[in-house]
Design brief:
This protein is α/β, with parallel strands linked by helices. The protein contains 23 helices and 21 strands. It has a domain of 212 residues: P-loop containing nucleotide triphosphate hydrolases (Rossmann fold, 3-Layer(aba) Sandwich). Helices cover 37% and strands 25% of the residues. The strands form four sheets. It has a six-stranded mixed β-sheet, with helices on both faces. A six-stranded mixed β-sheet has the order 17-18-19-14-20-21, with helices on both faces. Strands 1, 2, 4, 5 and 6 form a five-stranded antiparallel β-sheet that branches. The longest helix is centred in the last third of the chain and has 18 residues. It is globular and about 70 Å long.
Amino acid sequence: MDKLLEVSNLDVKFRLDGGSIFDAVKGISFDIPRNATVALVGESGSGKSVSAMSIVRLLPAEQAIISPKSKISFNGTDLLTLPDADMRQIRGKDISVIFQEPMTSLNPVFTCGDQISEVLRLHMGMTPKQAWARAEELMNEVGIPNPKLRMQSYPHEMSGGQQQRVMIAMAIACEPKLLIADEPTTALDVTIQKQILDLIAKLQQSHHMSVLFITHDLAVVGEIADQVVVMQHGEIKESGEVRQIFEAPQHPYTKALLACRPNVESRPRRLPVIEDFMSEAGLRPEHHEQRRRGYEANDDIVLEVRNLSKLFQLKDGLFKKREVAAVKGASFKLARGKTLGLVGESGSGKTTVGLTLMRLHSASGGEVLFDGVDLLKLSEKEMMKYKRRIQIVFQNPYASLNPRFTVGQILLEPMKIHSIGKNEQERVQMAMALLKRVGMPEVSFYKYPHEFSGGQRQRIAIARCLTMKPDVLICDESVSALDVSVQAQVLNLLQDLQDEYRMSYIFISHDLAVVKYISDQVMVMSNGEVVEVANADDIYLNPQQEYTRKLLGSIPKGWDGAKAA
């Protein structure tokens, strides 16, 4: 097969503070054929993005050290030896990148139309008028509604999916030979994710370009890739055609990545994790035992929500205001020791429901009965004792932990506020025990949040909630941005805690496979309204509403689904 790009012996090191050296990529080699999609797969820290950024030479020159033995050949030209001016001609024109986070990749002070047309003026030599007209065509091609109007929109006025489409429009503007997509769908709803994946596949065919697709989700890989390269700790563990990787994986790490992600067909008592496959003992029998889920008639109801509504006042022009109904009369029940999954697209009202239950948003109407007491009618002083009993784990562990506090201070602060423990010594002992309970070493007590990975920070956030010994824990997209292996660890931890303490969870997520795994009952929301509520198995086997069927139909089906199609 004709090769567009050849990576040979790529070795990248980084200079760290203090003069130490970190090996990020260790002499890897792989090829990207013409008109094909190659998936680069692995966990955070495996070297995927470093490898991709080496191709376009976007690594920081002060820290990155690329071995002189490394070679990246694009159409017969070694990119690593090109002068900067020549590389700028290739970057953006022949090789384009879709970055993971569009909100930080798009310039907030320029309209989307300006940013797309700038690429065309720089690389294609178009006049401003020609570039503007072509940019509008590109917006239409990537499926942005009303492109003429949206050309004038700023990035913050677009949804996450629309921002990603603008990034794709910029990336394909010059009809590149190679498109690098770096985790382009990680934080998107399943419906938007499917649209983006279908769009990339369609553009790959219509523009006859090659795609390097970077992800940690093998279910997505099975639907879009022709070839797969699996990376761990800066090394390639396995590579081959997608059929071979999915039907006959050779390396234990590849098998682990395939098994860690929950699927809608089964619900093992515990999800397998990487260590299960890398150890000599292999999988334990408990991974094959299935867990029963569902609400029952005699369940003890700990939280009942009746006709909850939330209106937001937004500015409309200089003097006017308009009301937006984020939640419209939501009603549901949460049983003790059970999990209610909240699903829906972005803007459906899921997070607003969770924050309103916590009184982090003031409700516009309705009742929230916690053990028969309406939380919405309590004074701030009366609410204090209930704040101990209902806690929330936020989506972003990087933003929800105070960077100036050590982990010890983060855990001890809520105990002091709520007078938990007789003295400081007892509180420290409790904090140490909680760290151990969530799988963190005791030395973590003395470290700061920036010294931990995303998965470890989420464990610390869960430990902070557990200091209150809550009855109800609201998990707001708490595993959505984690690697599949770390996600499995956190889901197992949540399940262990529920089994031990009979905690009730409200699990908010756009990942329907994860919701199916952990939920007893599922509530589907759309445009602030509850569309459907049913036991998890029932809603997946026999959805009653068209919107629910649309959500379920968007779940990545992996290689089996792609093969069946």
